TrEMBL record:
Residues 9-69 form the MULE transposase domain. It comes from Hevea brasiliensis (Para rubber tree). It comes from the Eukaryota. PANTHER family: MUTATOR TRANSPOSASE MUDRA PROTEIN, POLYPROTEIN, PUTATIVE-RELATED. Pfam families: MULE. This is MULE transposase domain-containing protein.
Length: 76
Protein backbone atom coordinates (compact mmCIF):
# COMPACT_ATOMS: atom_id res chain seq x y z
CA UNK A 1 0.00 0.00 0.00
CA UNK A 2 1.16 3.49 -0.79
CA UNK A 3 -0.13 6.88 0.23
CA UNK A 4 -1.06 8.73 -2.92
CA UNK A 5 -2.43 11.95 -1.47
CA UNK A 6 -2.96 13.86 1.75
CA UNK A 7 -4.09 17.29 2.88
CA UNK A 8 -4.76 19.38 5.94
CA UNK A 9 -8.36 20.41 6.66
CA UNK A 10 -10.26 22.08 9.48
CA UNK A 11 -11.74 18.78 10.64
CA UNK A 12 -12.65 15.28 9.58
CA UNK A 13 -16.26 15.70 8.50
CA UNK A 14 -18.37 15.01 5.44
CA UNK A 15 -17.65 18.39 3.81
CA UNK A 16 -13.89 18.02 4.21
CA UNK A 17 -13.93 14.48 2.87
CA UNK A 18 -16.07 15.48 -0.07
CA UNK A 19 -13.75 18.40 -0.91
CA UNK A 20 -10.68 16.15 -0.69
CA UNK A 21 -12.18 13.26 -2.64
CA UNK A 22 -13.50 15.50 -5.43
CA UNK A 23 -9.95 16.68 -6.11
CA UNK A 24 -8.42 13.23 -5.72
CA UNK A 25 -10.89 11.54 -8.04
CA UNK A 26 -10.52 14.32 -10.60
CA UNK A 27 -6.71 14.00 -10.54
CA UNK A 28 -6.97 10.21 -10.90
CA UNK A 29 -9.69 10.47 -13.58
CA UNK A 30 -12.11 8.38 -11.53
CA UNK A 31 -15.67 9.00 -12.71
CA UNK A 32 -18.08 6.57 -11.05
CA UNK A 33 -15.72 4.28 -9.13
CA UNK A 34 -16.50 1.14 -11.13
CA UNK A 35 -13.83 -1.43 -10.23
CA UNK A 36 -12.44 0.70 -7.38
CA UNK A 37 -12.23 -0.39 -3.74
CA UNK A 38 -11.45 2.10 -0.97
CA UNK A 39 -10.15 0.71 2.33
CA UNK A 40 -10.24 3.15 5.23
CA UNK A 41 -10.80 3.54 8.93
CA UNK A 42 -14.23 4.60 10.12
CA UNK A 43 -13.99 8.37 9.64
CA UNK A 44 -17.17 10.35 10.08
CA UNK A 45 -18.65 11.40 6.76
CA UNK A 46 -16.20 9.44 4.62
CA UNK A 47 -18.56 6.62 3.63
CA UNK A 48 -21.32 9.07 2.71
CA UNK A 49 -18.95 11.21 0.61
CA UNK A 50 -17.61 8.14 -1.23
CA UNK A 51 -21.11 6.84 -1.95
CA UNK A 52 -22.22 10.24 -3.25
CA UNK A 53 -19.19 10.96 -5.45
CA UNK A 54 -18.39 7.50 -6.81
CA UNK A 55 -21.49 5.35 -6.33
CA UNK A 56 -20.01 2.17 -7.84
CA UNK A 57 -17.02 2.09 -5.48
CA UNK A 58 -16.67 -0.64 -2.89
CA UNK A 59 -15.87 0.83 0.52
CA UNK A 60 -14.43 -1.46 3.17
CA UNK A 61 -13.06 -0.90 6.66
CA UNK A 62 -9.44 -1.56 7.54
CA UNK A 63 -9.06 -4.85 9.42
CA UNK A 64 -6.98 -3.18 12.13
CA UNK A 65 -9.80 -0.75 12.87
CA UNK A 66 -12.46 -3.46 12.78
CA UNK A 67 -10.37 -5.46 15.29
CA UNK A 68 -9.82 -2.43 17.55
CA UNK A 69 -13.56 -1.66 17.61
CA UNK A 70 -14.41 -5.32 18.24
CA UNK A 71 -11.90 -5.45 21.11
CA UNK A 72 -13.48 -2.35 22.70
CA UNK A 73 -16.94 -3.93 22.60
CA UNK A 74 -15.87 -7.42 23.67
CA UNK A 75 -13.23 -7.12 26.37
CA UNK A 76 -11.41 -10.28 27.44
Amino acid sequence: MFSISWCEVEGENENSWKWFLERLFEDLNIIDGLGLTVVSDQQKGLAKAIKELVPHTEHRNCVRHVYANWKKLHKG
